[in-house]
Design brief:
heterodimer; A: about 160 residues; alpha+beta; DNA polymerase, domain 1; 2 domains; B: about 775 residues; Aldehyde Oxidoreductase, domain 3; Aldehyde Oxidoreductase, domain 4; 3 domains; seven-stranded mixed β-sheet; 20 helices; about 30% helix; about 25% strand; globular
Amino acid sequence: MKEMKRYSLTLTVNNETHAVVTPPNRTLLEVLRDDLQLTGTKEGCGEGACGSCTVLVDGQPVRSCLTLAVAMEGRKITTIEGLAQGGQLHPIQAAFVEHHAIQCGFCSPGMILTVQALLNDNPTPAEGEIRRAISGNVCRCTGYAKIVKAVQSLAGEGR
Amino acid sequence: MEKFSLLGKDMKRIDTAAKATGEAIFSADLSLPRMLIGKALRSPYPHARIVAIDTSKAERLPGVKAVITAKDMCGDRWGVFRYTQDQQFLPTEKVRYVGEEVAAVAAIDEDTALQALTLIDVQYEALPSVFTIDDAIAAGAPQLHDAYPNNINVHVKIDVGDIEKGFNESYLVREDTFSAPEDAYFQGEPYAVVAQFDQAGNLEIWMPNAGPHMKAKPLSNVLKIPLNKVRVRKITIGGAFGGRSEISPADVICAFLARKAHRPVKIVYTREENTVATRQAHALVTKIKTGVDREGKVLARDITCHMDGGAYSSTGPIATSVPFLCMEQAYRMDNVRYNGYRILTNKPIRGMFRVHGRAFACGVDIQLDMIGAALGIDPLTMRLRNARQTGDYTPTKSYVASCGMTESIVKAGEKSEWKEKFGKLPPYHGIGIGCNSVQTGFPMGIRGGSQAFIKLNEDGGITVITGIVDNGQGNDNMVVQIAAEELGLTPDDIQLINADTEVAPSDPGSYAMCSTFIGGNAVRLAARDVKQKLFKIVAGEFGVGEDELTARDRKIFVTENPEKAMSIAKAVRIALSRNESISGEGSYWPNVDPKREWVKNPYGQLSETFSFGTVIAEVKVDPETGQVEVLEVTAAQDVGFALNPQVIEGQFEGGVAMGGQGGMLSEFLQWHEGRVLNPTQFGYLVPLAIDMPKINNIIVETIDPKGPYGAKEAGMSVAMSAAQAYCGAISNAVGVYFHDYPITPDKIVKAIEKKKKRENTKVPG
């Protein structure tokens, strides 16, 4: 197999910078999981359908399985590991735990980051807005009711 | 004093903070030193003889560390039952479905492994294939296995009472046929395995599972190593829904690769592999004949069901029986006959599914609606007149110790305003009801019971050791909640070691909805064992009787005089200083009939207890597009006793999503000559947040006499009733009864057109 050219880049993930050397065909998901050991970001489908690999890039939710790592130079990436501060759950994480919005937990990292992006844009979303915002994230366990409730509890606080 | 300090009220799950932060490790997240990546080569043919396999080129590729074929194994055939041993983990003679494993490689990275697969040369001789039930049982059809003539894998025959007499005495008899194609489990987590051997020949292996011991035994058999060398480790599991129950070829292949390469190996399935090469749910064709009296009471029922089982047996005898058993638990009937056939086809393997058999359950329920319409009895009343009651025996002779079927129907009816709505809704609005019942455990041979251990620390904290596994439903929390309640500790005082075959004692796993009932009872008994020992010490110190004591808030005190108290820590220290054992043991073996067998003797106590549920759905159909908008769903279930109500609600809501919203509106696998056309989320439509209606949850409690604190299975009867409610509601909205599922918009539009045509032709007459 022919060696592909490797690129050196600096990734800013959760406010830390990482020097990464990678061939150009690798996804952000692969670099996060395999090079930086940030395994909280999950691969559910590998084709941008399920949302489990969602991370925030400059505050916007992005499918890391469809994003090339080399395109991320100079961007601010947030993964699920970057949300809790000082050992304290982030309010969204706490709300998910409190309201039983997590069952198997495989979709939770992506779901929580999508909610973070939603609440950044719109601190008091209505139920319909919440449902639309998280409809790019598939959850097979919960039927979404308790996830919506968890987000509503946060939206309520914002009012 | 409240009866319980932790039970029956909301408790935050112990496992979810780690899942919220990304700290929880799933199988694919594992990384071990020198770990290789494994990949399987899969058959492109639905049915073919394997003439030769040449792996020499692949072996020479730099970076490839091991290549295995059937030659590396002993040709063992796996089966859940002795009489269903028909699946080789790598086949020696022929492949039977597109996607079956043929060979596997382990290499230094994924790219190298994938390239190596292209260098394996397999010569196949294509054989004629069968893809449908009808083709498979036709005269002269290609045969998949010598052991199953006419491709009939399993025939379950049940005959109770006198159905001919029942039909003769019936006021009305109907016969209808219902069908549905295969559905997919679509667990969040694609299947993944990591395996490594140490120098002493011990296997350590991680994978999603519904019972670590269920994985360990077949691994021990096929690797020819004793059970104590197979260490299935605990790992976070991303959903199972019945699809992680058995050994998977991936487990065996990963272990063989690791042993051959002398290095750890990880296999991670793609989404497509998860859909095709783990398990799928059966396609069904069910013919139901039901006879009733004038009041709608069922006098006789005769059901013939054909299930498309795919290429191998899997849990075939169970899968062939369960839809019938659920029905006979839910509804009373004296005369009933069942012929269930599981048919083999050249398609991927089918297993037990959380919402198994929609064409069966919907058929039974929607036919009750049809009969009710003919008699002028509404669907809810039809259910009430046939509902199972406490103290009954089912036709196949299971005693029903607790039953809230009627209560679930009545309460769901009230909440959904059934009386106000049925027959009174505007055009293209409809309301429908479904009922079902599921087991809380099966006879499972040597693995039928569960055991638990408890170890105490000198500060009063404990470690609970059990085989119970958590697939996402909250079983870990259930264990901690029970142990904490029984010993008067806080959840924080408890460490849990579970789902690890090296340390955990035998347990049936989360199979058959038995974790709370069987495993939970074992944990409770282990905690009681500890409590008795501690009470003996405290009673001696205080000069009171052991029966006068209570354990709560980390203390043991005299119930009538709570001031007289000793910390649990102190009691433990006294025991240690006296060299008295205070560790605990508990075991629970359910009261099921060990002579009951799925095929040979389907009579006797099946499960010690059963759950009962009702779902009511209200929908609005767009007659132009056939789109269904679900307005509201009410889910009610008898759970015995709700240990942690919000966890149970989560099960109801997830069950409505999977069984109703997905199962009745959008989910089905599409095929072309044995190949799945929609294996990923783009083609296989699982419900999203925008799709889901408002769900009302109603928890019915009957306090089962044997369940831990009265608890039994919690959520599956809702999951197994949701499809019927959706089907009934759509049928009610459109004015046409649907026989083929899921009810997609094209079927609705066609039904409306056909109905209009029929009505137009009637007008002149």
